[in-house]
Design goal:
Blueprint lengths: L1 H7 L2 H36 L3 H29 L1 H21 L3 H15 L3 H11 L5 H18 L2 H33 L3 H4 L18 H9 L2 H33 L3 H8 L1 H19 L4 H21 L5 H30 L5 H8 L1 H21 L1 E2 L2 E2 L1 H27 L9
Antiparallel strand pairs: 1-2
Helix pairs in contact: 2-3, 2-5, 2-6, 2-7, 2-8, 2-11, 3-4, 3-5, 3-16, 3-17, 4-5, 4-6, 4-8, 7-13, 11-12, 11-15, 11-17, 11-18, 13-15, 14-15, 14-18, 17-18
Length: 429
């Protein structure tokens, strides 16, 4: 039987599908954090303050978050090929609009289209992997996909700063738009829905296409009626909203104020955050599986570590020094990567197979809504503290990061509450 499945599932076809999805997902991560490096240019070119810039940047996350349940539904109805292709074309249009934007309003519209476009990759990608790869390969593929995505976050630091210096931020985004168009064509050519070739892999306990959910409304109400779903959603919201706000918008300018660095070197140090995530996500997943660790306890440990890191950053002031702040950034990235692996592992463990895709689509908006809200709130706190010649002080950033510390501390409390409820099994997360 395994040999038959392998014959029906060509090696090249499987990895072509993975490569096409991973290439687009690379830019999904790139765009999440790209405004951090070009933030000074945007503030100057559009003559806006931090609150307005935070709103512009947050448009990516609003559109990305709100569309996730619909993307999941369409991935079931249309198949991953059409969803990834069409949505990638929208992302390319957003890049062109952002690069040509004459005002902050048009830049916000471009940013929104980018967020909408790259939002059609992760959930369809998970569906495609479940169709094209064996069940035992799924966790490894997810880890590799996240690692490749975070390479996009690394490219959005120093390499993006270099490109913006060479071609300007507008020219850079026009080039990215052209690359995205090529990726859309590649997705259409390489991603083949298995049913189109009559070669689906049937995973145990799963079904394909429109059979995946008998009654969408009933299944949605089942998921939304679970307290565990809302606890996990709140943790995604608070922990990743804080983390991605720091990495994606304020980390580079915070380092410039705290350490007196120029933009290039600050963006170079910002690379430590995605590097930490690339190392932390697969390591935590491997450690949890290798020693069969209780995922809720691992979750508590990671959130406790993040709470300490945020407290250290908020209350230590300039006593941190370069070694201290760089250590925080690397460890925060690693802890956040581990947090993602453990949270999605909990979702898989506690969700019935027929509603796993729906649950993923409903949970996936929470971290992005968190980023959308935290970016605006932290920008407002910075503006309240005031700037000198457009530069915010290190203490102003620490005041803004107090919000992140409180959010992660609340998430820790929710995880402790979740542990008390873990004895009984639930029908949905």
């Amino acid at each position: 039987m395994p040999n038959q499945k392998q014959k029906r599932f060509p090696w090249r076809g499987r990895w072509a599908v993975f490569g096409a999805i991973a290439a687009v997902y690379f830019f999904a991560y790139f765009h999440r954090v790209s405004t951090s490096v070009i933030a000074p240019d945007l503030l100057t070119d559009f003559n806006v303050n931090a609150t307005v810039l935070g709103f512009m940047s947050s448009m990516y996350f609003y559109l990305y978050a709100l569309e996730q349940p619909v993307v999941g539904y369409l991935a079931d109805r249309w198949g991953p090929r059409w969803v990834v292709t069409v949505w990638t074309l929208v992302a390319a249009l957003g890049c062109f609009l952002f690069g040509l934007a004459p005002s902050i309003e048009w830049a916000s519209a471009g940013r929104a289209l980018i967020g909408f476009g790259v939002g059609g990759v992760f959930v369809p990608g998970m569906k495609a992997f479940s169709q094209w790869f064996r069940e035992k390969e799924f966790a490894t593929l997810t880890g590799v996909l996240l690692a490749l995505g975070n390479l996009g976050a690394i490219v959005a630091t120093t390499p993006l700063a270099w490109a913006a210096r060479m071609w300007g931020w507008r020219g850079t985004f026009m080039v990215i738009g052209a690359i995205t168009l090529v990726l859309a064509l590649g997705a259409f050519i390489l991603i083949e829905n298995p049913q189109e070739k009559d070669t689906p892999i049937r995973q145990k306990g799963t079904s394909s296409g429109s059979d995946s959910a008998g009654n969408p409304l009933k299944s949605t109400l089942q998921v939304l009626g679970s307290l565990r779903f809302w606890i996990l959603g709140a943790i995604f919201f608070g922990a990743f909203g804080s983390y991605l706000t720091f990495q994606g918008l304020w980390a580079t300018t915070f380092l410039m104020s705290l350490l007196g660095l120029d933009l290039f070197h600050a963006s170079l140090f910002n690379m430590l955050i995605p590097i930490g995530l690339i190392l932390g996500a697969p390591f935590t997943g491997w450690l949890s599986g290798r020693f069969n660790l209780n995922k809720v306890r691992v979750l508590i440990g990671l959130l406790a570590l993040e709470t300490v890191l945020w407290a250290w950053m908020v209350f230590s002031g300039k006593n941190l020094g370069i070694i201290g702040i760089l250590s925080i950034m690397l460890i925060l990235g690693g802890a956040s990567g581990g947090l993602g692996a453990i949270l999605w592992g909990l979702v898989r463990e506690t969700t019935p197979t027929p509603i796993l895709g729906l649950t993923t689509g409903l949970l996936n908006p929470f971290p992005f809504l968190g980023v959308a809200i935290f970016q605006v709130w932290t920008g407002a706190i910075l503006d309240r503290a005031g700037s000198v010649n457009g530069v915010y002080s290190a203490s102003a950033y620490q005041d803004a990061f107090l919000l992140c510390f409180l959010a992660v501390a609340i998430c820790l409390g929710l995880a402790l509450f979740l542990q008390k409820r873990s004895a009984g099994k639930m029908n949905a997360p």
